[in-house]
Amino acid sequence: MIKSTVLLAAFVLLDATAAQAQAINQSQMDRLDRDRNGAVDRSEYQTFMTSAFTNLDKSKDGALSRDEAARILNAQQFAATDADGDGRITQEEFLNRVMADFREADRSGDGTLR
Ligand SMILES: [Ca+2]
Ligand SMILES: [Ca+2]
Ligand SMILES: [Ca+2]
Fold first, then answer.
1. Ligand 3 geometric centre to CA of 64 (Å)
2. Distance between Cα 106 and ligand 1 center (Å)
3. Does this entry carry the keyword Zinc-finger (predicted)?
4. pLDDT in tens, the chain (114 residues)
5. Which domains does the chain have, with CATH numbers?
6. Going by DSSP bridges, is the β-strand pair 63-64/89-90 parallel, antiparallel, or unpaired?
């Protein structure tokens, strides 16, 4: 199904159980699919990721430090997501990255994951 590291990590973050860390299962897809039409569209995905960002930003300064991001990103992923290289991941940088993941996962290019 979805092979995105960041997406998987966000689920881990929100659910924090070993079993859920292994794979994205159907119930997790259902949590993303808010209107229950059987597909996850861009806005549903973005809503989910925005709340994941908010949960990660413990200091509430609008950006993720390396420590805050450590639960979902390794050093390499952090560097790839921190587009301007200032050592902080802003919400914009985070969403740019995860929406790129969405486009990659959306092989059919119809704007939904199903
Ligand atoms: Ca939907
Ligand atoms: Ca922060
Ligand atoms: Ca940055």
1. 9
2. 14
3. no
4. 445 555 656 655 554 444 444 455 566 677 788 899 988 999 999 998 998 899 999 999 999 999 999 988 899 999 999 999 999 999 999 999 999 989 988 999 999 988
5. 5-106 (1.10.238)
6. antiparallel
